[in-house]
Amino acid sequence: MNAATLRLEAAASNIANAQTEGVLPPPTPLAQPAGTQAPDLQAVYDPRWVDQVSLSSGAASGVSASIKARPDYSPAYKPDATYADAKGFVAVPNVDMAQETVGLITAQQSFKANMSVYQTADAMQQALLNIKA
């Protein structure tokens, strides 16, 4: 259930931030002189994804899941943006709406499957407690 929750959070965050814009990162990171900071510019949103690993080794079982950022953007021409580069480009996150919709549906089906397991376990426990000798 926790992994499904994380998939839902990641997909919702990606959908909500799909149209955000930010500064087009330079091809190579710029080195800042010692004691100075980079200018406060609007960074591009990094789409999220869920890293899920099976824990079925030894006594432990289940999955471990965590949300990770994936720096993935494409340039878009917006010369009127205050943070556009010299050529008028800004960065827009690469978010595939079809893939995010599939992620939402997958999370929903995972919730349903997990609830079915809980309901079956509860019914079996109730039947065991109702057995008369």
Protein described:
- Helix 1 packs antiparallel against helix 2.
- This protein starts with a helix and ends with a helix.
- The mean pLDDT is 83.
- The chain is elongated, with a radius of gyration of 23 Å.
- It has 133 residues and is an alpha+beta fold.
- The strands form 2 sheets. It has a two-stranded antiparallel sheet.
- It has a domain of 78 residues.
Highlighted features:
133 residues, alpha+beta, two-stranded antiparallel sheet, two-stranded antiparallel ribbon
Overall pLDDT, averaged? 83
Distance between the termini: 37 Å
The computed structural class is: alpha+beta
H and E string:
HEEEEH
Topology:
Elements: H1 2-16, E1 48-54, E2 63-69, E3 73-77, E4 89-93, H2 97-129
Antiparallel strand pairs: 1-2, 3-4
Helix pairs in contact: 1-2
Describe this structure in a few short sentences.
The chain is an alpha+beta fold. 36% of the residues lie in helices and 18% in strands. The protein has a domain at 2-19 and 48-72 and 95-129.
